[in-house]
Design a protein that fits this description.
The complex is a heterodimer of chains A (309) and B (272). Chain A has 309 residues and is of the alpha/beta class. Chain A contains eleven helices and 13 strands. Chain A is 36% helix and 19% strand. Chain B is of the alpha/beta class and 272 residues long. Chain B contains ten helices and eight strands. In chain B, the strands form two sheets. In chain B, strands 1-8-5-2-4-3 form a six-stranded mixed sheet, with helices on both faces. A two-stranded antiparallel sheet of chain B has the order 6-7. The mean pLDDT of chain B is 91. Classes of the chains: A alpha/beta (309), B alpha/beta (272). The A-B interface holds A 118-119, 121-123, 190-194, 196, 227-230, 233, 246-247, 271-273, 294 and B 21-23, 25-29, 31, 103, 106-113, 116-117, 121-122, 124, 126-127, 130.
Chain lengths: 309, 272
C-alpha cells in the first residue's frame, strides 16, 4: 500500500513511518516540522495540511491509505491556530481522502476525549459521551476533530475510517502530554487525590496504529495496553518525586519552582482518572502490547534528554 | 511490619481472590497495602470495640459474583464497614466486599483516594456492572442516602428501595444475598440531620447525636445473612415485575430485621 502519514515528524509518526516501511509499504509524509536524517525512501513534504500544497500531495501521490496524526497535543498551546489545525486540518484530510479515492484512513485521537470528573466511571467504552467539554475548553477542538472523523463513517462511507482513542503514551522520546507532565524531578499532584493513569509505550502505540491500518479497521476504538496504575506509583516508577499540593494552592504553584505548567482544565485530569476499556480493539485486531507499565516507565526514566532532535 | 499493619491481616489480604499485579494493585486501583492497613484498624473495632455477632456467613458464596443487599443502620457508614469486616475476618478464605460509595466522597481529598484504594468505587451503574463481570462481591444498600439518614426512632424500619439493583442482578445473572444489620441506630442515635450545613460541605447531610458528633458508642451489633436468591429474567422486564422482585427482597430483609430486633428487645437493649 502507499500510505500518507500526516504529522510524520512527531514521536509516534516517525515510528509508524518506519514500521510501515519495514512492512513493505510506500510512505509519504506531511508535517510542518522537519525530520532530519529521515530514511531517503520516505517522501517528505514540509508543509501545512490545511494548505493547497497538501492537496497536491494527495492528487499527485494518490495514496491508498492515510494515517492522520497532525493534531496539536500540547495542552499549553491554546490559540486560534490550534483549533484550526485540529478541526480544519482533520476536515481537509478527510475531504482529500474522499476526493482522491483513499480507501483507508486512521484518525489518531486521544482517550482524554472522555474527560475526567468525580462521577465519571472507570473503563469508558466507545459509546460513552465526552464529559469535560465545559470544564476543559482546551480539549474541545480535539473532541470535535474526533467526532468529525467518526462522522466520515457515514458521510464518506466508501472510506474505511478508523478512529483510535489512544491512552497516554510514554517512552524514550520524552515527548507528549504525559511526558511533559512527568518531565521535572518533582511532579505536582493534588493532595489527597491519586487517580489511575493509563499509558502505553510509544512503540506499542505505533504498532496499534499500523495494525488498524493493515486490517482495514472501520469504526471507533479505544486503544490501551497495560492495566492503569495510581499516579503516585507512576511517579515512583519514573524515578520522580511526588509533590502533593493542596488544591487551593495548585494553580498558584504551577509553572514555578520547576513544576510544569498546565491549563486550568487539566486540573481534573490530575484529580480524577480517565481509564478506557480497550477490549473491542483487541477483539477486532488481536492486538497485544509488548511492554508493561514498569519497563515503559523505566525507558522513559533512563532515556537521555532530547533523544529526538 | 509496616506502620499499622498486623501480620495476620496482611496474610489474609494475600488470600483474597482479587488478581493483584506485582505492585499489589488491581485493575480498579485496589491496593493490598491500603487494605491491610484498613482492616488492621477495622479489625480492632470489629473485635474489640463493638460486640459483633454474625450469623449465616456461610450463605455468602466462596467465590464468583454475588450481591449483598441489606438495610442501612447508623448515620455514617458503620453498617458497610462492619459487613466488610465480617466478610474479611469470618470467611475462609476472606472476601472483599465492594460497596458503592456516595458520589460526594470522590470530591473530598483523601476520602477520594481511600475509597478507591479500598475498592469502594463511586456508586455508578457502570462500576457495579464492571465489578460483577469481574466476579466480585458487591455490597448494595438500596435505601441509599435516604437509609443512612434514618433517625433513632426509625432505626429498625426500611425506607423506599431503589430498583436498579434488581435489574442489574438479572442482567448479570448475579445471586442476591439479603442481609440485615442491627444496632447501628443504637451506636449512632441520630437526633437530627443537618441538611443545609451538609450541603455547605458538599455532603448530603450531617448527622447529629445527643453528644453532637457521630462517634459510635461501643454497643452490640448484629449481622444476619440469608440464603441466596437467584432471580430469573433478562433485566428488561416491566416495572411491575421488577417491583415485585424488589418487594420480595425487601420483605426478606424486613423479616431478618424483625427477628433480630425481637431478640434485642428480649435482652432489653433496644429501649423505646
Amino acid at each position: 500500500m502507499k500510505v500518507l502519514v500526516t504529522g510524520i515528524a512527531g514521536k509516534i509518526g516517525r515510528v509508524v513511518a518506519l514500521r510501515l516501511r519495514a512492512g513493505g509499504h510506500d510512505v509519504i509524509g506531511i508535517d510542518r516540522r522537519g525530520w532530519p536524517n529521515a530514511p531517503p525512501e520516505i517522501e517528505l513534504h514540509q508543509l501545512d495540511i490545511r494548505k493547497r500544497a497538501a492537496e497536491d500531495v494527495f492528487r499527485t501521490g494518490r495514496p491508498d491509505a492515510v494515517v492522520h496524526m497532525a493534531t496539536v497535543t500540547h495542552l499549553t498551546a491554546r490559540s486560534a491556530d490550534r483549533d484550526r489545525i485540529n478541526l480544519h486540518g482533520t476536515r481537509a484530510v478527510w475531504e482529500h481522502c474522499h476526493l482522491y479515492g483513499v480507501e483507508r484512513a486512521v484518525f489518531v485521537g486521544r482517550h482524554t476525549y472522555y474527560g475526567a470528573d468525580h462521577d465519571a466511571p472507570l473503563y469508558h467504552r466507545e459509546d460513552d459521551p465526552p464529559m469535560a467539554m465545559t470544564s476543559f475548553p482546551e480539549l474541545a477542538d480535539l473532541v470535535a476533530a474526533d467526532l468529525y472523523a467518526g462522522s466520515a463513517l457515514w458521510r464518506m462511507a466508501s472510506i474505511d475510517t478508523a478512529v483510535l482513542r489512544i491512552c497516554y503514551t510514554l517512552g524514550p522520546s520524552r515527548t507528549g502530554t504525559l511526558a511533559q507532565f512527568l518531565r521535572g524531578p518533582r511532579v505536582p499532584t493534588l493532595l489527597g487525590f491519586d487517580p489511575l493513569f493509563q499509558f502505553l509505550h510509544e512503540a506499542d502505540a505505533a504498532d496499534a496504529i499500523v495494525l488498524a491500518l493493515e486490517r482495514g479497521l472501520r469504526g471507533v476504538y479505544n486503544v490501551a495496553g497495560p492495566e492503569p496504575v495510581p499516579l503516585s506509583l507512576l511517579i515512583q516508577l519514573c524515578g520522580r518525586t511526588q509533590f502533593p499540593i493542596p488544591e487551593p494552592l495548585f494553580r498558584l504553584l504551577l509553572g514555578r519552582f520547576g513544576l510544569p505548567r498546565l491549563p486550568p482544565g487539566a486540573l481534573k485530569h490530575v484529580k480524577y482518572p480517565v481509564v478506557i476499556d480497550a477490549s473491542a480493539f483487541r477483539a477486532a485486531t488481536g492486538y497485544q502490547h509488548e511492554r508493561d507499565a514498569d519497563s515503559t516507565a523505566r525507558e522513559f526514566r533512563d532515556a537521555p534528554e532530547g533523544l529526538v532532535d | 511490619m509496616a506502620l499499622l499493619i498486623a501480620p495476620e491481616v496482611e496474610a489474609r489480604v494475600r488470600h483474597l481472590e482479587i488478581p493483584f499485579d506485582r505492585h499489589g494493585i488491581d485493575r480498579f486501583g485496589i491496593s493490598q497495602r491500603a487494605l491491610a492497613r484498613f482492616f488492621t484498624v477495622l479489625g480492632w473495632f470489629y473485635r474489640r470495640y463493638f460486640d459483633v455477632t454474625v450469623s449465616g456467613i456461610e450463605q455468602v458464596p466462596m467465590r464468583g459474583r454475588a450481591m449483598l443487599v441489606g438495610n442501612h443502620s447508623g448515620g455514617v457508614a458503620l453498617d458497610g464497614a462492619m459487613v466488610l469486616a465480617s466478610l474479611f475476618f469470618d470467611m475462609d478464605p476472606p472476601r472483599l466486599g465492594q460497596g458503592m460509595a456516595e458520589k460526594f466522597l470522590n470530591r473530598v481529598p483523601f476520602a477520594s483516594t481511600w475509597t478507591n484504594r479500598l475498592g469502594q468505587l463511586t456508586g455508578l451503574p457502570e462500576h457495579a456492572t464492571a465489578l460483577l463481570e469481574s466476579e466480585r462481591l458487591l455490597m448494595v444498600f438500596p435505601e441509599g442516602a435516604r437509609g443512612t439518614a434514618k433517625l433513632y426512632g426509625d432505626r429498625n424500619s426500611l425506607v423506599e428501595f431503589g430498583t436498579g439493583f434488581v435489574r442489574l442482578a438479572l442482567r448479570t445473572r448475579t445471586p442476591i444475598i439479603p442481609f440485615a444489620f442491627l444496632g447501628g441506630g443504637e451506636a449512632i442515635p441520630t437526633v437530627v440531620n443537618l441538611v443545609k450545613l451538609g450541603h455547605v460541605f458538599g455532603m448530603p447531610y450531617i448527622p447529629v447525636t445527643p453528644w453532637l458528633v457521630a462517634i459510635p458508642r461501643p454497643v452490640r451489633l448484629e449481622i444476619y445473612y440469608d440464603a441466596p436468591i437467584l432471580l430469573e429474567g433478562t433485566g428488561n422486564e416491566e416495572d411491575e415485575v421488577i417491583l415485585g422482585h424488589v418487594d420480595r427482597i425487601k420483605h426478606r430483609i424486613g423479616a431478618l430485621i424483625e427477628a433480630g430486633a425481637s431478640i434485642r428487645r428480649g435482652r432489653g437493649e433496644a429501649v423505646r
